[in-house]
Amino acid sequence: MLNPEDVPGLVLTGASAQRELDAAPQFKVGDSVTAKNIHVPGHNRIPSYIKGKRGVVDRYQGSFAYPDDAGKARPTGEAQHTYSVRFTASELWGNQHNDVVCISMFEDYLVQD
Amino acid sequence: MTNKKHTHPPSAVDLRVRALESLLVEKKIINPATIDTLVETYETKIGPRNGAKVVAKAWVDPAYKKRLMDDATGAIKELGFSGIQGEDMIVVENTATVHNVTVCTLCSCYPWPVLGLPPVWYKSAPYRSRIVREPRAVLEEFGVKLPKEKQIKVWDSNAELRYMVFPERPAGTENLSEAELAKLVTRDSMIGTDLLEYTG
Amino acid sequence: MNSVHDMGGMHCYGAVVREVNEPVFHAEWERRVFGMFIGSFATGMFNIDQFRHAVERIDPAHYIESSYYEHWLEGLLTLAKEGGVLTEEELQGRMQELSMEEPQC
Questions:
Q1: Could you tell me if A35 and A110 are in contact, meaning their C-beta atoms sit under 8 angstroms apart?
Q2: CA A63, CA C18: separation in Å to the nearest integer?
Q3: Is pTM, for the whole model, over 0.80?
Q4: Pairing verdict, β B98-103 and B89-93
Q5: Interface predicted TM-score (ipTM)
Q6: Residue A18 pairs with which residues in a beta bridge?
Q7: Which candidate in B26, B29, B34 is best for mutational testing of the A interface (most A CBs within 10 A)?
Q8: Separation of first and last alpha carbons in chain B
């Protein structure tokens, strides 16, 4: 049970979902990728508006507990590499703006073009 | 979730909450005094003043700014801010050509250690649905009008990284101290829904 | 999963409405829910993705109509029930008891 005296320490520490991972990242900055068209009834962190859309790897973001596994059971999920992937407004919404959306993607959500 | 006032005074909800708390206390999962301490922490100690200090320091200290861009989590921790919902941070810099704005379309992820708990609008359906699709229209509702040439980067924090926007330092602030600069920095400027101005 | 929580790009939710000088919490029950969330998370009752998944499974109509901390409340209740911490009957029973204690006017 969390007691009042534990609060300052807990608040300042939190619980990082970052996890060590030996395997090398599959993608590198600048790669063209497509977000998978995944529809599963369980938990995941891939929003519908980017499914099937093409983007570019903007930066590598480290390895984190994979939410699709973590959402199912008490043990946290296996680690996976994550990337910030940049999608243009024209790819997502069909408009002419120069704007972009950058979104964090687990490796399993992406395929290389 | 919609734009309705937040507390449609839900006596039913209130009763449900009290019942849950009483059961969790009875089952020794929750200590009610801990709830009070947590609430006090987020009502009085952790809020956007923290982020404002980070921004002001980075404006006046180029070496700190470099650390903030290279390792935001570490640089923010130097000022004593870290932990829950900011375990892993990224700071994105507004420039003459790029304006950044943050959202969490799937839930309401937000960098608590630097900005505190999110305002209702940030968690609301209108903001979450629209900012990725029509950022210019949403920003205009906030009074932020950007030239067409300026690119908007919307950061959807759908994984475990939390984003803070590093706003541009307003013109005319060359002679202000770090503490004075920190007072200019608004919460919304660190979300990306405000532009800072200095009127002297 | 595909549900209403996945809001990016949706139409028809209207303008973003902001509250001037918004307080951190709007009611005491929100404070209690917030504290219970952190407190039960710290005991290892669930991880963050399980919590998100519990919120995503809220009835879609209720999700849209209810406020943020109501989502947290329902998420917590779902996880407490699924984790064997309490039952719906216990909850209903306790609500009944507490409502009897309230002054009748």
A1: yes
A2: 36
A3: yes
A4: unpaired
A5: 0.94
A6: A64
A7: B34
A8: 39
